[in-house]
Structure formats: C-alpha cells, structure tokens
Write a structure and sequence with these properties.
mainly beta; Immunoglobulin-like; Maltoporin, Chain A; 4-stranded mixed β-sheet; 2 domains; 50 strands
C-alpha cells in the first residue's frame, strides 16, 4: 500500500541531492594549502586534537584534527604570526614566513591554565573529544555528550548504539531512547537544530537506528531546560549533529561482515518478498490489488472475482541465513572560491542483516500459567542511508544545507507453537504472522549563522522540513489448532464465516504520512555596561507545523459451513489460499472488517517565543535564565463507532528556567538549575484506531476509545514537569572530566501505558492514561581519566595511551493514579520505563605511532516497567529485566590508508527477559514469572576501512 508513492518520493529526494553530489565529484581536484603542520604534546609526543590555531590580526582560525594536523589554504606570501591555544597547555606564538608554502610543527607544554573560552571566527571543529567537553562546560544547562572521535573507537553501528554510552541513557528495542530512567515519550529529539520526525505509528519516538554512526559529528543531551530549548521533554532533549565543514579532502570506503550466534548459518523459515526488498522498500508486490472497491462485502455478486485478485502470498520457504553485511562510503572535500570557503560531505551507508530468534512467551495470572508458546521469529533488516551536507562560509557568515534520507525495510515471519503438558484437555496451536514494514525518512535543514566582527552580536536561523512515510502492506496472520491429546485430531485453520483479522487469515494494510515544517531564529547580543562589565541577551522564536494522515484496511478470509469447508481448512499454510481454493461457492472469500475509526488525520501547530539573559556576577558566578512561552494547538479527526469526532485542544504555557554556575577554581565549577517542561500526548495516544499486536498478544488503542479506564473515551492532558538539578564539574586536564550531580522531578498528569480488558480474540489490551502525579529523582556520576599518572608513579611508559571512561545513574520514581476505574490498583508504582540504575564503563587504548586502538565497554540497566498492570485486565505489570552487555573492539592501521577492525558484542551472552510482577510488589526479581525471553547471541564483526 503506497509503494508507488514511496518510490516516487525516493526519486524526488534523490533529485534534491544530485546537484550537491556532482559538486562533490567536480571539486575533488581542487585543493590548496599554504601553511600546514602538526601539534603534539611536548612531554609525550602524542598528537593533540582540537588545538585552536589562528593567524594573528586576521579572521582565519581552525582546530587540529584527530592526528593533530592543521592546514590553512590560500595564504598570500608574507610574514605572519601563528597563535596556538589549547586548554591546560601554554599558549604559544610563532612567526612564519610564507613563500609558496610553509610547514610549522609545534610542541605544546602542559600547564595548569584555566579553561578559558576561545573565540574562532571561522568554522569550528566540533567532533573532537575536547571540543565536545568545551561545549558541555560552556552550556547554559546540564549537558552530557559524545563526540565522533570517541564513537570511532567503538563498534557502534548507529545512533542507538552510540547514545547508550552517555550518562543516564538506555536503549529499548535497539532503537528507542530512555534518559534518566524515563520512557522514550518523555524525551525530545532534534536533528541539526530542527525537530526530528516520530518514526512510529503508536507512540512519540524517534528511531535512533536511522542514523549510521559514521555520519555523526556529535550528540548532545540536555538534561535541564533553558529558554532556547523546546519545552516538550522531561528526561532529556537530544541534539544529533551530522557532519559539517570537513577538515580536508578525503574519501573513505568501508565494509563489515558479522556473525551472530544462534542466527547466522541457521536454517530459517521466511516468506519471499519483492524485487526491491534489498533496497528497503516493497515494489508493490504486497500492495492492495488494483481496481479494489472502497469497501468489500462478501455478499456482493462481484466478491468472487474480487477474491481472485489476491494472490497466494502465504508461501513459506527455508534458507540458511548469511552473515550480516554493512557497506559505507563517504566523500569529504573543502575548497575556496575567492573569499567563500565551501565544504561538502556525502555519505552512503547500506546494511543488510538478519536474525532468527527463539522466543519463549508465557502469560500468567499470578501463579497460574494461562498460555505457553515458543516463537521462531525470523527478521531481515535492510537500511539505506544517504547524507548530503553542504557548508559555505564567507566573512562572518556560515550557511549550511543538510540533508538526510533513510530507507529501512523489515521483513518478518513468526511461527508460534503452543506447549502443553500431558493431561491437558485442550487444543494445540500453531500460528503464523507474515509481515513487512518500511520506513522512509527525509530530513532537511537550511540554516545560517551571522556574527558581527567584534563577536558581540550573533543571529542564527534554521528552516526545517521532515517527511516520514511508513508502509505496512499485507500483514498476514492465521492460526491452526487441533484437539490435544486426540491422536486422530488434525490441525485446522481457524477461518470462520466472519472476518477474524487475527486468527482467520487476516490481511492488514496500513500507511502513515507525516510532514513537519519548522522555522527558528535567535538573536544574541552582548550588552556592554562599562569597560569592566557586560552581559548577554538572547531572544527568538520557534514555529512548527505538523500534519499526519494514517489509514488502515482490515481484510480477511471467510468460509461458510459446508462440505468444502472441512478439507479446505485442513490444508497447510502454503496451499490453503491457493487460486483453486478461493473465489468460488463454498470456498474461501475475502471480506472486510475495516471501521471508520481505523483512519485518522491530525495536525499540530506550535508557536514559541523566548527571552534569556546571561549575567556574570563577579568573576566566579554566572546566572543564565529566562522564560519560554509556548502556544500549541493539537487536533485530530476520526470516528468513534459511526460518529465523526474532532477533538481540538489549545494549550498555552509559560516555562521559566534558571541556571547558576559557580567557578570554584580555574578547573571546577558547581551548577544548579531549575526549569518547567511539558510532555504532550501523541496523535496515536488519542486515536481510537484498534490494532492487534501479535508479539504482545494484545490489542492497542488510544484514549478516545472507550475502556474500563475511560468509559466514554477522553483526550489526554498535557503532563507538566518541574525539574531540579545540581552538578559538580571538574576538568583536571585535557580530555579529563569528573561530573557528579543530583536531579529531582515532579510530574502532574504523567502519561502512562496500562493493561485493560480486551475484547473478541484478545484476552487483554493496552491503552494510554494520565496518572495523577509522580516524582523521579536520582544521582549521576561521570568520569574520564587518562592513566598516565600510573607511568609517573612507577616510572614506566605503559599506561599513557589508556583512558578510562564511565558513568553511573541511580534513580527512583513513584506515582499515584486517581482514575476511578483503577484507583488503588496502581499506587506508589515506578514510572513506566524508569530504571533504578544505569552503568556504563569502558577502557580505551589509542597509540597513534602503532596505528592501534581498542576498547572494552560494559553496559547494564536495572529492571524497568514496560507496561503497567491492573486487576481489571487480569494481568500484572510487565517489566524488562537487566541486560548486561560487554563489548570489545580492536582496530589497526596498515600502510597509513587501511584500517582493519574486529569486535565482539554481547560477550556475556546475555538474555533479554521480561517478567510479570506476580506478587504485585512493584519490583521484578526471582519471585516473579517470566513472560518473554530470548537470547540475541554473541555478535562477531570484522571489517576493513580504506581512507585516501
């Protein structure tokens, strides 16, 4: 469904990139340089990245790359003075005579200098570890982050792998982010200073597996509000920056292959796909047949011919799973056209992976086992990512045009069989779910930064556009059952005289289109009171318009009782809906169960304004803060039963915030912060559209659908959050850091997902509600420490290349719910998704002389609530148990241009486990029953990268 539109959209997005792509190729031959060199540590000889190099009395400045190298281009012949500045190192000035070119190598001497702000008028390099630390230290809020330099030392494949290294961050389902123990819905994500699209139908969440790690410049996570940031977050506000101005001309080509225990090399059942599955989208093979009426009625005389339009797509085959493959290509070049410096980055990433998991599922009612299933679940995941970033600087202005297109296609087949012990007088079951889902995301930003010559005024603006198309064509589900332990019983398909979308040969089609348009701008002005005192004022606006259209059709096979029904229903899944068995009297016919509420359209309009000030009080205290005003209007049009409904909710909020920092010494400071933020409901959390989740074995609907919680249906309220933070920050030397902080949050009307009684084929379902109130609090610790001090103590030279990195978050939360239907059933329970602890610790080794680097990384999170349970639904709260991950990666440079890397992930062979809170004590431990478990297996990777 919608595959033709998806293909056309793909072509349009590719055309948008062609001009800058050709510019990249043409400009490869353009390269000039007049002053270049390398900066190293005078005591160790190690290269220093992020050193600010400027030419005195000019506006030229840059930073050294990861190898300590720098290069100025188009420098006229003459005498100059180079200035080298680096935190915790002595400033150095060197004269240079340029006559067709010059090479200036510098050795800097360490000293305990203060961490002064450095202004560079040209494009600033942001991807080094020191540059990110400087950005964190200068921020007006509590921030954590990670640089591309640190990312390159790991085997992290995409943004989801990367962000889980950040303090207080965990990942769910390999793609959704949780910050400070708060569910993904409580976090906002921006891509290059514009809002990122929500990639899911069912919730507000950005899928972090969209962005390959090699295309990331840096990731910053703001944990406290400030007037410049959007107000819709509680856990954290994530900014993902892709590559900007390149440092030099470079082409990188890489390939990786991976082997997963329990999946790679195993025999897997799969359903054949379309010819374009390898590109991440369906070519129309799975789409609805042409000339299909708007609604199908099996009583129509034309129904037989309509049924014949559907091909037998229920074919299941077997194959051996090949190793995973990943290919990436990037091209970076920088050149000058007169006084304009232009940089271009093109990146292409392709991934083709597969898993074949054995999943054990059980449903419990306290100590009673209700159901017991084994799933064999095959998934094939294809991702195609294209990044095209064009940057131009002229004078004190910089213009950026950034584009990211990503296409992901997931093909899946689940074969579910029931487990029964001897003596059970019930039926055995075998179910099949055959699905395909594709997501096409395009995000584009055009931005400008304009700075006055004296650096006292800066104006920034960003135009943003994002487009999401999600297609789920022909999700097929059918169940077979026999009478156990009757030896003469045969498996029979559960096709009924009416449509059973879940068990009776259902065919589900859905599509989602979402467009987001945004504009933001900000003016910052330094106001000078006298020669000794000045302060900064900033004001700006943010405007966003979002529209979404979702539609679904629910079809299924039916068969009337009669002499043909018995033999036909006993045919295997490959044959049951073959052409000779459908579209004739007494045989299978297609019918429709689509409801008017299975589709909806929605809009959201946001207008925000803010003003902030940064006031220095003496030499040690800085106060920054202000207020943000957000005027938001959210509307949705759909049906409830047969009645059209159109809730339209307007909200207006003032969001004050303040951040106070006190410089204890030249290298340390204390920061305290307060701010109010919000958490708005998502479109799907309102919509009464009903969907059966085969994996959860439960239905899903939004709050407008009547349930035992909201008998008449209702819109969700905006959650209001008060945020309090305090943090100690210490920067003992270059690249080293110690952060220790505490946080506390209170919630009014927090939005949660809960079990409710199901209907029809469902024993239970889940929906979304507003709890009454809640709190969440905790402590955070982060450190980065070079082990050179061991060499100094023991007079060795063995530890100078080692770095320890770690972070720890301890947190707790509690909430109460006063909703009449479930009052006193959920009391003092933790917030959904809140982990009591998150631990990341790693050891990095880097020796540039040997071209060798390695990492050993450990990650674990505490048990967290997945879905809240109620007695009304006959089920307990479900929690995700701790997952302990230990990863190792090693890379080696050969002949300067070739990098070989090997790595192992999940070395501890940990299992993914979900449990029911059987004793309802709001904890998950050995006394609770396992609801779902599977072992993703160890993951081995070997790759090669070529740089030239």
């Amino acid at each position: 469904m919608g595959s033709k539109e998806q293909a056309e959209e793909f072509c349009r997005n590719m055309n948008r990139l062609l001009l800058t792509f050709f510019l990249s190729i043409i400009s490869l031959s353009v390269f000039a340089g007049n002053i270049k060199g390398k900066v190293t540590d005078a005591s160790t000889g190690n290269p220093l990245s992020g050193v600010v190099v400027s030419i005195k009395n000019t506006d030229k400045g840059l930073q050294t790359n990861e190898n300590g190298e720098y290069e100025f281009s188009d420098i006229a012949n003459g005498s100059y003075e180079l200035v080298f500045t680096y935190i915790t190192y002595k400033k150095q000035l060197l004269p240079v005579l340029v006559n067709g070119g010059a090479v200036v190598n510098v050795k800097l001497l360490p000293e305990g200098n203060e961490l002064k702000d450095v202004t560079v008028k040209t494009s600033r390099i942001t991807h080094t570890e020191n540059a990110v630390l400087m950005e964190i230290r200068k921020s007006n809020s509590v921030v954590s982050g990670i640089s591309s330099a640190q990312i390159s030392k790991t085997m992290d494949r995409n943004a989801a792998d990367v962000v889980k290294r950040v303090p207080g961050v965990t990942i769910q389902d390999d793609r959704f982010i949780m910050i400070r123990g708060l569910f993904d819905r409580y976090n906002a994500v921006w891509l290059n200073d514009a809002g990122a699209p929500s990639s899911e139908v069912d919730k507000k969440s950005f899928s972090f597996d969209l962005i390959p790690s090699g295309l990331i410049d840096r990731i910053l996570i703001f944990k406290t509000p400030s007037p410049e940031l959007p107000g819709d977050f509680a856990g954290g506000m994530v900014k993902i920056y892709t590559s900007s101005m390149p440092e030099k001309n470079q082409v990188i080509v890489g390939y990786q292959t991976s082997f997963r225990d329990g999946s790679t090399g195993t025999n897997a059942s799969y359903s054949p796909g379309s010819k374009t599955d390898w590109l991440g989208y369906d070519d129309g093979m799975r789409g609805l047949p042409g000339n299909l009426p708007a609604y199908i009625n099996k009583a129509d005389v034309e129904n037989n011919s309509i049924t014949k339009l559907f091909s037998n797509d229920w074919i299941i085959k077997n194959k051996t799973i090949s190793p995973d493959s990943r290919f990436n290509f990037s091209l970076a070049n920088v050149f000058n056209i007169k006084k304009v410096k232009i940089g271009n980055t093109l990146g292409v990433a392709y991934t083709n992976t597969a898993t074949n998991y054995k999943i054990h599922r059980q449903d419990w009612d306290s100590a009673t086992l209700n159901t017991d299933y084994n799933d064999q679940q095959y998934k094939s995941n294809v991702s195609v990512g294209i990044l095209e970033n064009l940057v131009a600087t002229v004078g004190n202005s910089k213009f950026e045009f950034k584009n990211l297109y990503n296409q992901i296609g997931v093909s899946s087949l689940t074969v579910r069989t029931s487990n029964f012990t001897p003596g059970d007088s019930t039926s055995e079951e075998r179910s099949y779910a055959i699905g395909y889902e594709s997501r096409a995301t395009y995000a584009s930003q055009l931005s400008g930064t304009h700075t006055s010559r004296d650096d006292n005024r800066k104006y920034t603006w960003t135009l943003g556009y994002s487009d999401l198309f999600k297609n789920q064509p022909d999700l097929r589900r059918i169940k077979y059952a026999n009478q156990y332990p009757n030896p003469d019983s045969m498996y029979s398909a559960q096709v009924a005289p009416y449509v059973d979308i879940v068990n009776g040969g259902g065919r589900y089609y859905s599509s989602l289109y979402e467009h987001v348009y945004s504009f933001s701008h900000q003016l910052s002005q330094k106001i000078k009171v006298n020669d000794n005192y000045s302060f900064d004022v900033s004001l700006g606006n943010y405007i966003e318009y979002k529209s979404r259209i979702f539609s679904a059709r629910q079809l299924g096979y039916t068969i009337a009782p009669g002499p043909f029904a018995f033999p036909l229903k006993h045919l295997p899944v490959n044959e049951i809906f073959a052409a000779e068995n459908v579209g004739e009297t007494g045989k299978f016919k297609i019918d429709e169960a689509t409801n008017k509420y299975d589709s909806y359209s929605a809009k959201n309009r946001m207008i925000a304004s803010f003003v902030s000030v940064k006031l220095p009080l003496g030499t040690k205290i800085n106060v920054s803060g202000g207020v943000r005003y957000e005027d938001n209007r959210q509307s949705l049009k759909t049906y409830l039963n047969q009645n059209e409904i159109g809730p339209d909710v307007a909200t207006k909020f003032w969001l004050p915030s303040v951040n106070i920092s006190y410089n204890l010494t030249e290298k340390s400071l204390v920061r305290v912060a307060y701010g109010k933020t919000l958490n708005r409901p998502e479109f799907r959390e309102w919509s009464p559209a009903y969907f059966y989740d085969f994996d959860e074995r439960a239905g899903l609907s939004g709050s407008l659908r009547p349930t035992t919680v909201y008998p008449n249906g209702d819109t969700l309220k905006v959650a209001e959050v008060q945020n309090y933070d305090a943090r100690f920050e210490w920067y003992p030397s270059s690249g080293e850091v110690l952060h220790a902080g505490v946080f506390y949050k209170t919630f009014k009307n927090p939005i949660q997902k809960v079990w409710v009684p199901g209907s029809g084929v469902d024993s239970k379902a889940y929906t979304f509600i507003n709890a009454n109130d809640a709190y969440c609090g905790g402590v955070e610790l982060e450190f980065r420490k070079n082990l050179m001090f061991i060499d100094n103590v023991f007079k060795t030279n063995a530890f100078k290349d080692f770095m320890l990195v770690g972070n720890l978050t301890l947190s707790a939360s509690s909430m109460t719910i006063d909703t009449a239907a479930i009052k006193n059933q959920i009391h003092k329970a933790p917030l959904q998704g809140q982990s009591p602890y998150v631990i990341n610790i790693g050891a990095f080794y880097q020796n540039d002389k040997l071209g060798l680097q390695g990492s050993l990384l450990y990650n674990v999170f505490g048990a967290r609530t997945y879905i809240l349970g109620t007695a009304l639904a006959g089920g307990e709260t479900v929690g995700e148990m701790p997952f302990k991950s230990l990863d190792v990666a090693i890379s080696k440079v050969f002949f300067k241009h070739y990098i070989v890397n090997v790595g192992v992930q999940n070395m501890l062979n940990s299992e993914v486990v979900f449990k029911d809170d059987s004793n309802r004590d709001n904890h998950f431990d050995g006394n609770d029953k396992i609801m779902k478990s599977f072992n993703p297996g160890k993951y081995y990777t070997v790759g090669i990268k070529v740089k030239f």
